[in-house]
Write a structure and sequence with these properties.
mainly alpha
């Protein structure tokens, strides 16, 4: 299973993308599917714990650049104002900040993009009452998508820019959300394609070389892209470009990025005047 086209064929055979990914992983590891489902439940537990811990208003990274910001986003009046997006953004920020503060997170697919997938799913669960079992199956869909992106392109910011980290995470989250809300495997593919094309070209420019600024804010932006992409796909919109082609386009764009925009901390936000002046 190396392309989305293959993933869709397996989904037709096994029932949906989650079951196809679960079957593939069980075959690769030579173990029962029950063990893999339990392991994913464990991952979900870590995601939930990191989301909660990251909401502490006293949380601060060693550099002092981030921490305590998710708590401001999560106050009831803000959540009420922005609904599902507000809740998802708060969790995406909290997990990303918790990572910056050396907390335990699930790299999904990377530490720098760790808030997007869990932020989307945990918010959807709280808003619409999905069970943990449903979230776990959505995570298998996301895992399959992440594997395909990694194989055809990259999930490394140093190799392909932040489009490969937050972009990939948004594509994974969008597909997972579509599955969660009852969409078809084809809709999942369209959602992933929408997310990736909307984040195409996003650079990796960490200030002072730390996974803090602008990284934590891009987790919030990434989860909003995932929700928007899922919305479009569930409404019946179809990507005019096949998902596999969008993934390959992301690779081409990543290869074309100068080294200053690939996690070296030499360009983009990392080169802003206030940053260089030490402010």
């Amino acid at each position: 299973m190396q392309t989305f086209a293959e993933f869709l064929r397996d989904a037709a055979k096994y029932g949906d993308l989650a079951k196809a990914a679960l079957h593939w992983q069980a075959k690769q590891e030579g173990c029962g599917e029950e063990a893999l489902v339990k392991r994913m439940h464990d991952r979900l537990t870590v995601m939930r714990e990191s989301a909660k811990a990251g909401l502490s208003p006293t949380l601060r990274s060693v550099s002092g650049m981030v921490g305590g910001q998710a708590a401001k986003m999560a106050v009831p009046e803000q959540i009420g104002r922005f609904g599902l997006l507000g809740r998802a953004g708060s969790y995406a920020m909290s997990i990303a900040e918790y990572n910056a503060c050396m907390g335990k997170i699930v790299a999904a697919p990377t530490a720098g993009s760790c808030g997007i997938l869990p932020g989307a799913l945990l918010a959807a669960q709280e808003t619409d009452g999905f069970t943990d079992d449903q979230l776990v199956m959505a995570l298998f869909t996301a895992a399959g998508v992440g594997r395909i992106i990694a194989l055809q392109a990259t999930i490394s910011g140093a190799e392909g820019g932040c489009q490969a980290e937050c972009g990939a995470a948004a594509g994974m989250a969008a597909a997972a959300l579509v599955q969660l809300y009852g969409g078809t495997p084809e809709m999942c593919a369209h959602a992933c394609a929408f997310s990736l094309m909307n984040m195409l070209g996003l650079v990796c420019d960490p200030v002072h070389g730390l996974v803090e600024v602008p990284c934590v804010y891009r987790n919030v932006g990434g989860v909003s892209q995932a929700l928007s992409a899922a919305h479009m796909a569930l409404a019946g919109l179809k990507s005019p470009i096949p998902c596999d082609e969008v993934i390959l386009a992301m690779k081409d764009v990543g290869d074309a990025l100068p080294s200053s925009l690939r996690e070296t901390g030499e360009g983009g936000c990392a080169a802003c005047r206030s940053v260089c002046a030490g402010k």
